[in-house]
Design goal:
Elements lengths: L1 H24 L7 H13 L2 H14 L9 H11 L1 E2 L4 E2 L6 H4 L3 E6 L5 E7 L1 E2 L1 H14 L4 E6 L15 E8 L2 E6 L4 E2 L21 E4 L7 E3 L6
Parallel strand pairs: 1-5
Antiparallel strand pairs: 2-3, 3-4, 6-7, 6-10, 7-8, 8-9, 10-11
Helix pairs in contact: 3-6, 4-6
């Protein structure tokens, strides 16, 4: 009995050591809640059954198939079907392509705080534009990344503020090409930091994440590219 207890103790000790080593050396893959949220949405969009549903929805419900379109043609397709409404408008925010495409009620916020009915639109801001574009690209087997700007304002001279924007990158000719569906812009990564006199936003860019389908590094910092 004493020998058995000793053996059990050794086994438990080995298990505890193994768990300690595993926890000590496993890579850290948890990001903040926003990045984790959009990482999950990306994974959901990339599932074959969801891609099949999105293709069918566009072909049947939108009467505008997306199959066979390249990254620039998908940008044209998207802007044909979704309208930008800024923060002065209220409407339900959505995070998946099939949720984004149906029209929703959009309300114009009055100066006295009341809401005035504005109309029914397929509406979105940068989140809807970039998430929809991600889904459209995935449905066409285009390597795409969702870009999330989480910058904090560290330079008060930056009148454009910081963070609060999303866009995309697509892998073309061996490089990650900047695509901003909200702005209808391709390959203009310094748009966000340039001064207004040069057509830019004058934003403080210091923390930008790329979310993609790389099995080893699905999330990476790409800040330098946009500074």
């Amino acid at each position: 009995m004493k020998k058995m207890r000793k053996q059990i103790g050794i086994i438990i000790l080995i298990i505890l050591i193994g768990l300690g080593l595993w926890y000590g050396f496993k890579p850290t893959t948890t990001y903040d809640a926003i990045i984790d949220f959009y990482s999950d949405r990306y994974k959901d969009m990339a599932k074959p059954d969801y891609i099949a549903q999105l293709k069918a929805y566009c072909a049947i419900n939108m009467s505008d198939p997306i199959e066979g379109l390249n990254y620039s043609e998908l940008l044209v397709w998207e802007r044909r079907h979704i309208t930008y409404f800024g923060p002065e408008y209220d409407f339900p925010r959505r995070n998946m392509p099939i949720e984004i495409l149906p029209p929703v009620l959009v309300y114009l916020r009055n100066i006295n705080g009341t809401d005035l009915y504005h109309g029914t639109f397929t509406a979105g801001r940068c989140g809807e534009f970039s998430l929809l574009y991600t889904g459209l690209c995935l449905a066409n087997e285009i390597d795409v990344r969702l870009i999330v700007d989480e910058s904090k304002l560290t330079n008060t001279s930056k009148t454009g503020g910081a963070g609060d924007h999303m866009w995309n990158e697509v892998f073309v000719n061996g490089i990650w090409l900047h695509v901003d569906p909200t702005q209808n812009v391709i390959n203009d990564p310094t748009l966000y930091v340039r001064p207004p006199s040069e057509g830019g936003w004058n934003k403080d860019v210091n923390k930008v994440y790329a979310i993609g389908n790389d099995p080893i590094n699905p999330v990476s910092l790409v800040t330098e590219k946009y500074q």
